[in-house]
Amino acid sequence: MLLEKIKTPGLSHLSYLVGSGGKAMVVDPRRDCEIYVEKARAEGLEITYIVETHRNEDLVSGAPVLARMTGAQVLHGPNADGDVVYADTARDGDRFQIGQLIVEVLETPGHTYDHLAFVLHDKDYPDGPVGVFTGDALFVGDVGRADFYPDRKEEVAGLLFDSLQKILRLGDQTILYPAHGAGSVCGSGMAEREFSTLGHERRNNPRLRITDRDEFIRLKVNENHYQPPYFRLMGRLNLEGGKQAPRVMRPRSLSLDELKAAGADHLVDIRDPMAYASGHLPGSMSLPVDMISAFAGWFIRENDTVVLIASDASQLCAAMEHLSRIALDKVIGGYVGVVGAAAKGEKMDAVPMIGTPEVARRLREDRNTWTLLDVRDADERASDAIAGSEHIYVGTLNERYRDLDKSMSYTLMCASGMRATVAAGWLASQGFANLDIYLGSMGAWKAAQG
Fold first, then answer.
1. Stretch 306-329: mean pLDDT, rounded?
2. Which of the ends of the chain has fewer CB neighbours closer than 10 A, N or C?
3. The predicted structure's pLDDT at residue 116
4. Topology match between the domains 2-240 and 353-448
5. Looking at domain 256-343, what is its CATH homologous superfamily?
6. Is the whole-model pTM more than 0.85?
7. Do 305 and 332 form a contact (C-beta atoms < 8 A)?
8. Average of pLDDT values for 262-280?
9. Rounded CA gap, 264 and 330, in Å?
10. CA atoms of 414 and 423, how far apart (whole Å)
């Protein structure tokens, strides 16, 4: 028997290849899905089933592409928000076989109406399930979001509670295989580890320790979550079936003159934030490689064209992978050479960094012409904030920048300065000139308070 987890960095997406008796099943495949075929072939396995726990909101499903590559049957849950054209419907109690393994379908609505869990039984060990693929219903240390149906908040939260109890009835011995790990936008309290059992979660998961249904509903209804615009794109593509990912994950190399002539909708500087702040091409925004999955979908829209600006070719390849997984892959090309261009006299912009003493001085003296803008999320802001600062979540600056006065000066802050650089980069690309970044941000402020 084979059970291999395949993790997608950035999105913290977890998919699985399960094999036995020469056959295999793939759970929640990503768009660049050759990896499943390669691994299955290396183990002498034929992929016969592809199962989706739900219609993903944060990445393009690879199920339709993988089905065309392998001839496997795709299974999806009932009550999707539309017709999942590439899949057959699986319902509660359905079973199918992978070698010595029996896979049982559980309907587990709540995160989405179409949500399923897939229970793994081993015929040689009949005393209860071996494992369960829980999708976005249950994570290690957390449970799924229930905010995708705002006019039915109480209903879906209650459905999620019921589904979690249904999963827990599988027994404490059951190994948990969720669809995401820590860092995903699909949860906020996930543990760093990606292994657990239902018994461990029952005793230690804060959300599962709430046994009163009404209390659970109140908690879920009052959670703060953000929905980037690209979620709607993912929702549509995961009904109609997304196209295959680009076969070459390296953008065409551009010269500086070609970059200037490209006419891209976005110049995206994917270098380290400090490198961007020190000097960047005018009009470019900052999206460091390891933050692309979290924030590109806020600022880049479907069919927007992109030029990537990197420190080296490996950054270009990594950025292309991240963008392709959320279908934002209209990349005209990539440019490496900011430092060299600066040395030749090419005009550069910069975003200054300031420290705690200067922030404190401005809070006392400069409030009429200057704003300390906190771009953390609402939960972070609620737990601790600097008096006199204003709040706009970094992602929502994609639209709310229009509410800001370009004649004012802004200092961007977050927890450490990383998201503040993304925010400053976006504002700079929209024509804001009076910007700087609070180096160390909330961490530095707390340290200075003793």
1. 96
2. C
3. 98
4. no
5. Rhodanese-like domain (3.40.250.10)
6. yes
7. yes
8. 97
9. 10
10. 9
